Amino acid sequence: MALDAAHRYRLEDLLTLMRVLRDPEQGCPWDIKQGWDSIVPHTLEEAYEVADAIERRAFDELPGELGDLLFQVIYYAQFGSEEGLFDFATVLDTLMEKMLRRHPHVFPDGTLASRRPPGVSAEAVQTQTVNRRWEALKAEERAERREDIDKAPPSALDDVPRTLPALSRAAKLSKRAAGVGFDWDDARGVLAKIREELDEVEEALDAGDDAHAREEVGDVLFAVTNLARRLKVDPEQCLRATNAKFERRFRYVETQLALQGKHCRETSLKEMERHWQTAKVQERS
């Protein structure tokens, strides 16, 4: 769709559509029976489909995927409205207030009208100062939320969602801890930690302690996540890229065997490895 194309619908139309879908008399039976918990898996799936479309540079698919993700927000807003908790306008107000508050270097008075005047580039703002201010504001927000829960002292790890994929949550936990000084001096220190954890896996295996070995594998994964953070890469994206690479190469192995009338189960590991190495060479050429 061209940027200058006429648009038929507005956000209010989407909100109306959701109200109708959830209407006990007019609505869709599937949508009517949905609730907070049943929609969460769909939300996570839609978020990953957005990430997948971006990674594949499938920008023709992206509006649809972003729309699916937006629809999840509309769902939750409708649930909130039905239960008298909040509505979409509340979501919008909360988001705007938070973003204005977190960007005082752009909106000095916390209003859209107070935005940085034309002619002052973003580069003119001290990035390090901005990042420190951003983290301080988020820490204040976490402390305020924590006070509503209990009187325990606030933690740098407060509000890291437990529902995140384990790899993403590990990255966030380690980043929060590093933000208050709990970190290695450099990436070499993380590499040493990875080797240490691998040695502990090997010791557990040698001792025949499978339970301890499983625990140590978790430690290895957490240490590798820290290495990704130190290298300023997202471990989730790294692993998705490796998953795609593995899939390409393994499918190549299967295809080559199929051309010979063979199946993996009927083939030696040595022959499969030979095709695997060919796939690697072809990717690099």
Automatic annotation (TrEMBL):
UniProt biased composition (Basic and acidic residues): 142-151
GO MF annotations, alphabetized: nucleoside triphosphate diphosphatase activity
Pfam families associated with the record: MazG
Domain NTP pyrophosphohydrolase MazG-like, first and last residues per copy: 36-107, 191-250
Spans annotated as Disordered: 142-161
CDD domains: NTP-PPase_MazG_Cterm, NTP-PPase_MazG_Nterm
E.C. number: 3.6.1.9
Keywords: Hydrolase
EC supergroup of this enzyme: hydrolase
Transmembrane portions of the chain: none
PANTHER family named among the record's database cross-references: NUCLEOSIDE TRIPHOSPHATE PYROPHOSPHOHYDROLASE (PTHR30522:SF0)
Protein name per the record: Nucleoside triphosphate pyrophosphohydrolase
Organism: Halomonas dongshanensis
